[in-house]
Amino acid sequence: MLDIDQIHEILPHRYPFLLVDRILELEPGKHVIGLKNVTCNEEFFQGHFPGLPVMPGVLIIEAMAQVGGVLLLSLAEYSGKIAFFAGVDKVKFRQSVVPGDQLITEAEMVRIWPSRGMGILRCVGRVGDKVVAEGELKFVVKDNPNPDGVTRSIGAIGRSPVASPASSPASSPPASAPPAAGDDRSTTGQ
Fold first, then answer.
1. How far is Cα of residue 59 from the mean position of the Cα atoms in its chain?
2. Which of 56, 110, 128, 132 has CA 20 to 30 A from 176's CA?
3. Given 8, 13, 31, 48, the catalytic residue
């Protein structure tokens, strides 16, 4: 099991876009189960939809992708890297996710091409015993342009963190910062 502090060491996402609160089970490179507590305080509920709060489907997929990102980054060859979406296939939404729900995501590795840093995950999101969303998520893993920043490998969890000004939220580049050299903006960050 991984708590939120350990998840922060693996994924670069932060509030309000970190959509996984806890990892309940992890078998590196094979299977992961993660949890997102969906509260009435989520910013997206202000506009989606007033009087009828429903978690947007794209954010359910993003939550599933973040849980899958923990699975991917558990592989030794991806240690300290960053996972990005490369595509989604066979996605189906079965039920709404609303405030008070616990979104439980299970992800398993379907296929991986380690030499190309690519692969496919099969993800299923559930609330209770009901499937709310499912699909295949394609990914690409890239080098971390900020290796002293916020993301670290699972193998580094529990070790003393290295102090770095780059890991401070106040020192994060603005959203409008130009992409780094070699940055492929055709994929969206997972």
1. 10
2. 56
3. 48
| 60-119 pLDDT per residue, tens | 999 999 999 999 998 888 888 999 999 999 999 999 999 999 999 999 999 999 889 999
- Whether the link from the prior residue into 49 is cis, omega within 30° of 0, is yes
Query: What's the token pair of residue 88?
Result: 């989604």
Q: Is 48 a catalytic residue?
A: yes
User: pLDDT tens digit string along 2-31?
Assistant: 999 999 989 999 999 999 999 999 999 899
Beta strands in 5-100 (DSSP E): 22-27, 31-37, 82-93
Q: Give every strand in the sheet of 130-142, ordered side by side.
A: 22-27, 31-37, 102-113, 118-127, 130-142, 82-93
